């Protein structure tokens, strides 16, 4: 994983350099814009970089370069692929910037107070307003500031991604990667809306449809966006064939589902010292996940009614959180979800067995499959 670790360093360097450049622009407008820079830098300084890694290994899967970042290392493929490395890293950095924008907006919609152990961006703007004793409502100011910073990060992600695809040696590959990026943005936005829609309207759905709806949210809000799309973007930058793209998508979609299911378990049972969020945060936010849908079908009527009554209450006490956690465990939903995760990981691994991709990429993608589904944060 030395190559992946080196990639993470390069991504961070690109993000830092980009924000440094925009800092000059913003502060030239007004010193009051310093929070935009500071909050963005803090948010971009953390994370696991999974989307960037899948983008890079999607590219490696199709180019077949040797596993080295040394520009003097002997390569078995054409020189122009080696020169495309910087372009791929820039595009992968754009994906990380897009993810940061999505997190800011997601925290506002979910009413999340924390992110990676720090106050969420909108809460930081809220605190800024409160400390300054400014007129108006601090919470409303915080949401407005968070929305604007999220929009700014979204625009910045486009700039970074465009610089990456524009400097590729193959203009056709750049256009193909941009098409995948655009498609991803539409899907994740649609998935995000379906998430908040189903949280609000679930009582009007047939009981038999709740699990399918929760699965649909996973696919479009997270699975495609977190794994499948970054792989496709990277592969397209490397000039992937239709067969290569199909194989990587067959790997990416089930792995993305498993990734989000692990996230759902952590959202209910995760250790706050590792996740950077309060225990049972998804319970307070009212997430209608696959875990909850499965638990509801197994719970007795009284327990199901209590779960429905408490889920989504932002004032849940620690005792109520522990009670709901116990009910979900006793329903067998945790074991059920673990089984679904294992099944999807098996499907993902199976897709790589005869996939027409480079050996090094196959090995690293299998390692990543374990990393994204066996994590504790």
Task: Please characterize this protein's 3D structure.
With 377 residues, the chain is mainly alpha-helical. It folds into two domains: 1-46 and 85-167, Farnesyl Diphosphate Synthase, CATH 1.10.600.10; 171-377, Farnesyl Diphosphate Synthase (Orthogonal Bundle). The protein is built from 17 helices and two strands. The protein has helices at residues 2-29, 34-44, 50-63, 79-83, 85-110, 121-132, 138-166, 171-201, 210-237, 242-269, 272-275, 281-285, 290-298, 301-310, 318-330, 333-352, 359-373; strands at 114-115, 118-119. Strands 1-2 form a two-stranded antiparallel sheet. A hairpin with a 2-residue loop joins strand 1 (114-115) and strand 2 (118-119). Helix 8 runs antiparallel to helix 9. It is globular, with a radius of gyration of 21 Å. The chain starts with a helix and ends with a helix.
Question: What attributes does this structure have?
Answer:
Farnesyl Diphosphate Synthase; 1% strand; globular; mainly alpha; 2 domains; two-stranded antiparallel sheet; 76% helix; 377 residues; 17 helices; 2 strands
Layout of helices and strands:
Layout: H1 2-29, H2 34-44, H3 50-63, H4 79-83, H5 85-110, E1 114-115, E2 118-119, H6 121-132, H7 138-166, H8 171-201, H9 210-237, H10 242-269, H11 272-275, H12 281-285, H13 290-298, H14 301-310, H15 318-330, H16 333-352, H17 359-373
Helix pairs in contact: 1-2, 1-5, 3-5, 3-9, 3-17, 5-7, 6-7, 7-8, 8-9, 9-10, 10-16, 13-16, 16-17
